[in-house]
Amino acid sequence: xxxxxxxxxxxxxxxxxxxxxxxxLYAVRAGLDVVVVDRGPVAGGTTGAGExxxxxxxxxxxxxxxxxxxxxxxxxxxxxxRPPDEDRPPDRDFGRAIEYEPKGGLVVASTPEALTALTxxxxxxRAAGVDTVPVTPDQLCELEPYLAPGLAGGVxxxxxxxxxxxxxxxxxxxxxxxxxxxxxxxxxxxxxADGAVRGVRTERGDLLAPAVVNAAGTWGAExxxxxxxxxxxxxxxGFVLVTEPLPRRVRHKVYSADYVADVASDSAALQxxxxxEGTAAGPVLIGASRERVGFDRSxxxxxxxxLAAGATRLFPFLEQVRAMRAYSGFRPYLPDHLPxxxxxxxxxxxxxxxxxxxxxIGLATGTGLLIAxxxxxxxxxxxxxxxxxxxxxxEAAP
Length: 398
Prior knowledge:
Elements: E1 7-8, E2 11-14, H1 18-29, E3 34-38, E4 53-54, H2 63-80, H3 94-97, E5 105-109, H4 112-127, E6 133-135, H5 137-143, E7 153-157, E8 161-162, H6 165-176, E9 179-182, E10 186-191, E11 197-202, E12 205-208, E13 211-214, H7 220-226, E14 234-243, E15 253-256, H8 258-264, E16 271-278, E17 284-290, H9 301-314, E18 323-333, E19 340-343, E20 350-354, H10 360-375, H11 391-396
Parallel strand pairs: 1-12, 2-3, 2-13, 3-9, 5-15, 13-20
Antiparallel strand pairs: 4-8, 5-7, 6-7, 10-11, 11-12, 14-17, 14-18, 15-16, 16-17, 19-20
């Protein structure tokens, strides 16, 4: 029990990362009083260890691509708006504040066979509403002059974009107007005699609310367990290599066609596929690796070497560029590669918004809108059945 005083609101969002920030933004816009609570700082988990990708290019046709397209539209709406902010100069718009770059993605194939598979994927994506542009080998050089020669071709995705994730999370939280309580650990989910949510317990007192949103990322399973339900969120470790600041030589997010297969893989073993992109600040970001090693934060020299080798195969000039640092993070992974979004029918008042793996930055806005719609009893813009939080319990039932 706690001797600290209680406070109340309409919704408690657990997690101050990108997903939690978006949930807070749209819930407040829907007229709800929101408190965001996190045991660490804003963007202290997966968000702070990400590259800030807003992608449709790496999604196969299906529910996740539908969510990505919705989110893509919402990101554009957010970055084109100018929320009032007396502390920011009038010529600095919101998009610039979060380093939003609608630079597009370029997926390249090294062999004719890989190009055939990529072209087939792009055709399905195009039918689902994605803008795709076939790119010949000669056009590759026009789009990315520093690319390695001899590639078979590629596909350009104009809708792909990038933000600086920690800035984006912080600015969305600020724009939301929600109360943010960092350094405050949720130790329990309060429930009434009828089993419905009544709020959360923390070491600094109870926060009473009829709704709790689990946006805890890789710790989503832990928060779900506090409410007495199972949600099989697992961490998938990934490294990012950061170069010294450079003049802009990589114009798009550029990655190998193998990346899409690695994203969808169920393997726990190490997988790397080259992903290279410039940033507004100058450094080039190099990924991507994926492996299931629990919460092991150990530095892995073989992984970093594999990332560097893959990047230099795509962009040979990087062989002469210094790497300034490498960092790792944990992507919240669910077994079927779809996030859990929406109300949990097992616990009235409990909502989940986690398990987005490496796509959480891009999918955050759509997730936040869908959560706000369900919180206020509105029909969601997308069918939430594929994202049902209890779908794994149903699979495990005899």
